[in-house]
Amino acid sequence: MIITISREFGSGGRELGKRLSNVLEIPCYDKEIIQMIAEKQGFDEQYVSHISEKNLQAAYPRTIGCRFTMTPHPVTKQAVTIAVEQQKIIKTFAEQGDCIMIGRCADVILKEYNPFNIFVYADMDTKLKRCIERAPKGENLTPTELERKIREVDKERAKHREFYISAKGNARSNYHLCINTSSIEIKKIVPVLAEYIKVWFEIRIENKARNV
């Protein structure tokens, strides 16, 4: 049972993943991936977190194109290193057994594992409210500044996804279930979601057995 959660910034995708992890009693990987990359490559965790979902489309071709003509820019090289290491870690976790992966294009990276893919989204008012409630200590952004930040993060995530797949980041056809968390307490929908996922995997196993 491998579950991936893609999400809009502020939609509650991380909370949903953690709560679902508790109900299903399987590990959930999010910041753990960042910590492992930082430790292995000797980078600062905040730097890895900042780069891990940035747009690599422009950086990666430039690295390839300049391979024999000039030394790649250090930042470009580090971005590609992080992307490659991230893929390795995500696949390693999937090979270890049942788990939930949050973000980082895990649904695309783990396509061969046939995961259950979820996309979490919400209206802007809900995302603003959630971000304000969970803002890091010392962060005092105005609603306008916060909305700009939300849109910028979602834009970067979409561009990052295009590095792995040509389809749009929030296209419904990319996911098995899209969840609108607008004005909803996430903890109330998790038990129902867990049962839905169990049924989905049971049906998949049954269908696979019939085709053997």
Overview of this protein structure:
- By secondary structure, the chain is α/β, with parallel strands linked by helices.
- It starts with a strand and ends with a helix.
- It is globular and about 55 Å long.
- The protein has a five-stranded parallel sheet with strand order 2-3-1-4-5, with helices on both faces.
- The chain is built from nine helices and five strands.
What is the average per-residue confidence, as pLDDT, rounded to a whole number?
83
Helix fraction by DSSP (H/I, runs of at least 4): 55-70%
Structural class: alpha/beta
SSE series: EHEHHHHEHEHHEH
Number of E-state strands:
5
- List low-confidence stretches: 57-73
Biggest sheet overview = 5 strands, parallel
Into which percentage range does the β-strand content fall?
A: 5-15%
Main sheet: strand order: 2-3-1-4-5
Multimerization state: single chain
Cα distance spanning the termini: 20 Å
Number of helices: 9
Taking Cα atoms only, what radius of gyration do you get, to the nearest Å?
Answer: 18 Å
Tell me, briefly, the overall form. globular
